[in-house]
Each structure stands twice: as C-alpha cells, then as structure tokens.
Write a structure and sequence with these properties.
By secondary structure, this protein is of the alpha+beta class. β9 and β10 form a beta hairpin. The structure holds heme C (HEC) (5 copies).
Length: 343
C-alpha cells in the first residue's frame, strides 16, 4: 500500500504535567527485567509449573496474553527472522539466557509467571499491594511498593543498540517515560492494564493492541465542516497513560480521507533516522519526529475541503517496517478502524 504525507498544520496544545508522587527507595530484590544471563533452567520450569497448578484461573488469562506468546507470536517471529539477535531474546524469551536460542519452556511461556513474580535468584515471590481477601496463601510474598509500574518499566522502555549517549532520542520504546511525564503518572500501569474483576482479582490478559473496543474507546475524534468550507478534525486520546500508540515503534494512527478523486492520509507516528553515536563511533537509530497522540497533546487538522462529499476514517495500524525517507512508505500488517464518518 502506497501512502503520501500531507502538508497539514499541526496544532499542539500542551497541558502542565503531573509529577509522580512516588518517593520510596529501590527494593533490595531484583525487579522483573530482561534476562542478562542464563537462569538455572530446569528449576525455573518446575517452579513455574507449580504456580500454574495452584493458580489455574490466572494461568488461563496469562496463556491468552501476548506476554505468554512473546516469543512465538507471528509479528515477533517476522521481525526476529530478519534480526535473530540476543537482544531480542532477552525480553521475548526471558526465561532463557539470551546468548543462545531458547529452549521449549522459554519459547512456549514467553514472559512467564516466574519472570514477573520470581525475578530474584533466591526464589522469593514478589508482588504488589495485593487484593482485599486478607489471605497470603500457603507461601510468603514480598510486597514491593509501586510494583504495578516498576514490574513493567525495564522491559517496556529501552534504547536501540549502540545508542548510549543519545538519551531519550535513542529510545526504541519509551512507554515508561511517556507514562511518568503524563497526566497519569500517578496511576500504576496495572490500574489500567490489570483491571480488577468483581471478585477484586486482577486480570492477567494484558489486552491492548489486539482489542478493537479498547482502542476505539481510547480515541476522541471531532470532525466538522467549517464555515470557510474547510474540514476540521480534532483528535485526542481518552484515558491512555502514555502516547497513543505506545510501545513497539511500528505502530501508528492514520487519518484517511476518501473522495471521488482518491485517498489522502495523514499518519501520527514516530519517525527515525540513522546516526553515528559520537560516544562509541557506531551507527544507531534516533527519533527524528514524534507526532503520536499523548494525554497532553491533541491535534487540530484543518484541511481544504475536497469537491463533493467525502468520507473519513481513523485507523490504528501495525506495520512491519517504515521507510526512513519521504514518503515513508510502509507495509501494513494489520489495521483496525477506530472511528469513521462522512462530511
Ligand atoms: C507481566 C508480569 C506478570 C506476569 C507474567 C504474571 N503476573 Fe501475576 N501479577 C502481576 C502484577 C503486577 C500483579 C498485581 C500485583 C498487585 O496487586 O499490585 C499480579 C498479581 C498476581 C496474583 C494476585 C491476583 C489477584 O488480584 O488476586 C496472582 C495469584 C498472580 N499474579 C499469579 C501469577 C501467575 C500464576 C502467573 C503465571 C500464570 C502470573 N501471575 C504472571 C504481574 C505478572
Ligand atoms: C500450593 C499452591 C500454591 C502454589 C504452588 C503457589 N501459590 Fe500463590 N497462592 C496460593 C493461594 C491459595 C493464595 C491465596 C489466595 C489467592 O490470593 O489466590 C496465593 C496467593 C498468591 C499471590 C497473591 C498474594 C497477595 O495476597 O497479593 C501471588 C502473587 C501468588 N500467589 C503468586 C504465586 C506464584 C508466582 C507462584 C509460583 C512461584 C505461586 N503463587 C505458587 C497458592 C499457591
Ligand atoms: C520481561 C519483560 C516484560 C515485563 C517484565 C513486562 N512486559 Fe509487557 N510485554 C513484554 C513483551 C516482550 C511484550 C510483547 C509480546 C509480543 O507481542 O510479541 C509485552 C506485551 C505487553 C502488552 C500488550 C501490548 C499489545 O501490543 O497489545 C501490555 C499491555 C503489557 N505488555 C503491559 C505490561 C505491564 C503493565 C507490565 C508490568 C506489570 C509488563 N507488561 C511487564 C515484555 C514484558
Ligand atoms: C490511564 C490508563 C493507562 C495507564 C496508566 C497505562 N496505560 Fe498502557 N494503554 C492504555 C490504553 C487505553 C491503551 C490502548 C490505547 C493505545 O494503544 O495506546 C494502552 C496501550 C498500551 C500498550 C499497547 C501498545 C499500543 O499502543 O498499541 C502497551 C504496550 C502499554 N499500554 C503499556 C503500558 C505500560 C508499560 C504502562 C506503565 C508504564 C502503561 N501502559 C500505563 C491505558 C493505560
Ligand atoms: C527490552 C525489551 C525488548 C527488547 C530487547 C526487544 N523487544 Fe520487542 N517488544 C518489547 C515489548 C515490551 C513489546 C510490546 C510493546 C507493544 O506491544 O507495543 C515488544 C513488541 C515487539 C513487536 C510487536 C509484537 C506484536 O505482537 O505486535 C515486535 C515485532 C518486536 N517486539 C520485535 C522485536 C525484535 C525483532 C527485537 C530484537 C531486534 C526486539 N523486539 C527486542 C520488548 C523488547
């Protein structure tokens, strides 16, 4: 699919940021993180099997999640086939040392129970504030303050390889920074991503990019035809604790306008360039632009109205690669329509 960028005026509206009130020190235990070396594998598999045996409901939720599928999931496998690096394995198959191809357990369990709850070699089960049933169960747990965010950040924010001195511009994913500096910085990731059921239990499904209803509910679009004949689109996100889209760099929102004369598109995404890092002389990527929606950023697009009627749609896309020079063409892997209308 070929797409062309529009020359549209983008209006930014910045709202003051709420700073997270968190002030506790680092826990002495290791937090969930990408694997750096091999665990004693056999025992990890056995411990994980015990968690699953007693927590069958949680295990069912987790089985259907992208965490459990982090290594076998087809979009990951497509990227991994091009770049089968230890770097990728450290997060997508964290139950195996990154140096070699994962074993059957690490492949099939992805980010496993033990990855998040038993990150320390000493076997302590760690968790967050917990629920209100008053029971800790037959095993001890260590409660880590703000676990609902700290359990996530070291996998959900990381730099391109060789981008040491580029700071935030060198980040491949930056969900933690987006979250910490957003108006939602005082809510843990789990407030939104592990909603509590009626019984007060937290879900382990971690649905997001594959959930059309969740995505559509997170987008606000106001489309109108102005007195001057122009079309006006006002876009903002609703209840998203970071940029929308966040995470993987191959995600974007596209506003598509269809008229009798053809299709025009405007995308909201990050774009990247290659650069040589002065600190190590190696080539890396850095972020050149970021036009995604954010809790504190909305867009007003003013478009000269095409002749005749037109229809528009706002779509969420997962793409498999983005050209690094205009017109930034990309292969679309999946697309979900979040809103549409006619003007
Ligand atoms: C991606 C990280 C992650 C993975 C993977 C994960 N958990 Fe959790 N789990 C959490 C977090 C975070 C909480 C919420 C802690 C809190 O209450 O703040 C939690 C809560 C729980 C709870 C308490 C739930 C409740 O509300 O009653 C149990 C039990 C549990 N996990 C077991 C498991 C088991 C078993 C697995 C594997 C099948 C698993 N977890 C996989 C992060 C994870
Ligand atoms: C022999 C059964 C059994 C095994 C094995 C087991 N659990 Fe539990 N666990 C329980 C029970 C029972 C509770 C208390 C009821 C509940 O919260 O689900 C509990 C509670 C928890 C909680 C919630 C604590 C709280 O109050 O917030 C977490 C988290 C948890 N288990 C994680 C794990 C993990 C991770 C493993 C594997 C390393 C594991 N459990 C192994 C039975 C077990
Ligand atoms: C060990 C690394 C690791 C940890 C820890 C971790 N994640 Fe993830 N998470 C991943 C990977 C890898 C994926 C993507 C899997 C895939 O689709 O290939 C993922 C996927 C997700 C998704 C689904 C994204 C989508 O595209 O739909 C959500 C939501 C998510 N994580 C939230 C969290 C939250 C919240 C926490 C903390 C409680 C957490 N994660 C902890 C590695 C991790
Ligand atoms: C205030 C609620 C809220 C908080 C807090 C929040 N998220 Fe989200 N998140 C959402 C919503 C809503 C979506 C779906 C819209 C979207 O894709 O951005 C989402 C989507 C995602 C996705 C899917 C990627 C994508 O954009 O398709 C990932 C990964 C994710 N969140 C991780 C996190 C992590 C990690 C944290 C904490 C650092 C966090 N979120 C905090 C609400 C929240
Ligand atoms: C530091 C941890 C980390 C490393 C290293 C990492 N990833 Fe990921 N990856 C993630 C997380 C977290 C997500 C989920 C974010 C989201 O869904 O937007 C993800 C998502 C993805 C996705 C989207 C999957 C989907 O289900 O849509 C692809 C593809 C991917 N990664 C490929 C790779 C490849 C290839 C490498 C190695 C070159 C790699 N990743 C290295 C953490 C990592």
């Amino acid at each position: 699919m070929k797409r062309t960028a529009w020359g549209l005026a983008l209006a930014f509206a910045l709202v003051p940021r709420a700073v997270s009130a968190e002030a506790d020190g680092r826990p002495s235990l290791r937090l969930p993180a990408p694997a750096t070396s091999a665990y004693a594998r056999g025992s990890r598999e056995q411990v994980n099997a015990r968690c699953v045996a007693c927590h069958a409901g949680v295990a069912r939720d987790h089985d259907g999640s992208l965490h459990a599928q982090a290594f076998v999931e087809p979009s990951f496998q497509k990227g991994y086939a091009i770049e089968p690096a230890a770097f990728c394995r450290s997060c997508h198959a964290p139950e195996h040392g990154p140096a070699t191809e994962p074993d059957a357990f690490a492949r099939s369990h992805g980010v496993a129970c033990v990855t998040c709850h038993v990150p320390d070699a000493n076997g302590t089960i760690v968790t967050g504030e917990g629920h209100d049933t008053g029971s800790n169960g037959p095993h001890a747990v260590k409660r880590i303050p703000n676990f609902g965010t700290r359990a996530c950040t070291s996998c959900h924010e990381f730099a391109f390889p060789n981008s040491g001195s580029l700071g935030e511009k060198g980040l491949m994913q930056k969900t933690a920074t987006e979250h910490a500096t957003s108006t939602y910085g005082d809510r843990t990731c789990t407030t939104c991503h592990m909603p509590k059921s009626d019984s007060g239990r937290r879900s382990h499904r971690f649905t997001a990019s594959r959930d059309a209803t969740m995505l559509a509910a997170a987008l606000h679009v106001k489309a109108s035809r102005e007195a001057n004949g122009h079309l006006s689109f006002e876009l903002s996100s609703l209840g998203v604790g970071h940029a929308f889209p966040t995470g993987d760099l191959f995600r974007r929102l596209v506003l598509r306008l269809k008229t009798a004369r053809g299709v025009r598109e405007q995308s909201f995404e990050r774009s990247f360039r290659a650069t040589r890092d002065p600190a190590n002389g190696k080539t890396s990527r850095f972020e050149a632009t970021d036009t995604r929606l954010a809790p504190s950023r909305r867009f007003e697009l003013d478009v000269a109205a095409p002749e005749g009627g037109c229809s528009w749609e706002l779509v969420y896309q997962r793409v498999t690669g983005v050209g690094q020079t205009p017109p930034f063409t990309a292969d679309v892997e999946a697309e979900t329509v979040l809103a549409r209308g006619t003007l």
